[in-house]
Amino acid sequence: MQALMRWRADWRYPTTLLCVSGFFSTVKPLEPFLIPYLTGPDKNLTTEQVNNEVFPVWTYSYLSVLVPVFLLTDWLRYKPVVVFQCASLFATTAMIRWVEGVPAMQAMEFVYGVATACEVAYFSYIYSVVDLKRYRMATSYARSVQLLGYTVGSVLGQLLVSFDLMSYNNILIFTLVLITVAICASCLLPMPQRSMFFHRKDGWKAATDGNETPTDETRDAIGDTGASPVRREATGNNVEGGADVEESAGNGLDVKGSKIENGESVSADTCGKVLLQLWKDFRRCYSSRELLYWSLWWALATCGYNQTVNYVQVLWEHVQPSQNFTIYNGGVEAVSNLLGAATAYGIGFTEVRWEQWGELALGGFSGLGSAALFLMTFVGNIWMCYTGYVIFKSLYMLLITIAMYQIAADLTMERYALVFGANNFGALALQTVLTSIVVDSRGLGLGIIPQFIVYASYFSVIAVVFSLRGIFTVWKLRRSGDSYQLT
């Protein structure tokens, strides 16, 4: 029994359960083939209905619940929201399988938007249960299994469709079984005793009221993947039964037999105090001009990236209808995921002064992404569309990794979490405006080709703006006599 208690208190226990939940909730074999399914005989929707009436609901839903979910996730201490996210994914998949008609599909998209907003709890949970020295490893595991889940789902879906091993409906039933495993794993997660903002130990306010300095914790936490929505403070907890604190990293767990060092954690702060502190930190963070420019690119590019990824299947269906061609959407998604991860990983081994050359890189590579989108739009060949999509996605993964590292390098853990959330909220707000004007049937309701012309032009504007800004930055540093070297 004592050995079981020590095992449950160890950092590997919650990390393993979280990874199991993350993997099975992201294996979605039908996702690359959602447009052929919805527009096929099973649901009998038109491409225009899916494009202009159904898909926009996800953006509106995501934006409307993002801030409340962000606060509730911290107040409820993560685990309930992790469980709720899995349940929402189950409901989304069940609705895709059994409901019909545009209003029902719009309701499905709303539920999926809620599930997407709840994803913040997946990484935030690690903040409370894994010690600082284990955080980088645990975050790497959590992100890796998600990537593995998406890739396995894409490959599995491609095999099932190409070899006609399962019908679309049976693939959805299989997905429900996988999500059930994720729900069970999430229910077994230990309940954290603290969180980043509402249930924290004394010291956050003191730490964040001072001057900002680069922290090793923040750099380490993004070292492998370049992205992590939360950070964790170093705390030490003792576990009853003689387990050494350096070995038992599950220091925030609500496990029988464990206790928090120096007594109970501080009681939950009032919502008003937390919001006031968040606002003060928000103003301090964005007072940095360099951080503001990197965050601006983050929000603008993420908006365009999400729009492209959300509607690219509609473009593929337009270029090559699935009824007349064996589609390879799943294989393309798998390749783009792996290549994107490889580029993001490889950037960690480059020796470039991103504070000098970063904005120029943002502009140049955004221009290449724009060219890839124009290629997809005008060539009219499905293989060129697939190639352009892989290039575009890989470039975005490369640049977002650089942006995340540059932003995190000068922030404390809590402030990085705040900036991460604010940038994504800005991206989603821009995406909502773009969707309502360009895509929604109540707006312009453009067809898929004009839409992608807009997205390609959008990235062209980003490329011009940041290229000019990058040239100005390099010129200014040269003029000031700052030494530089391109490696």
3D structure, described in words:
- The chain has 487 residues and is mostly helical.
- It contains 18 helices and no strands.
- The chain has helices spanning 2-9, 12-26, 34-39, 47-75, 79-98, 102-117, 120-129, 132-162, 168-187, 204-209, 216-221, 271-285, 289-319, 329-346, 354-378, 382-408, 413-439, 448-479.
- α5 runs antiparallel to α9 and α13 runs parallel beside α15 (354-378).
- The radius of gyration is 23 Å and the shape is globular.
- Mean pLDDT is 82; it is low at 203-268 and 482-487.
SSE series: HHHHHHHHHHHHHHHHHH
Number of strands: 0
Distance between the termini: 56 Å
- Rounded to the nearest angstrom, the radius of gyration is 23 Å
Work out the helix count. 18
Task: Tell me the β content.
Answer: under 5%
Helix content: over 70%
Helix/strand-derived class?
mainly alpha
Low-confidence stretches: 203-268, 482-487
Largest beta-sheet characterization: none
Q: Assign an overall shape.
A: globular
What number is the mean pLDDT?
82
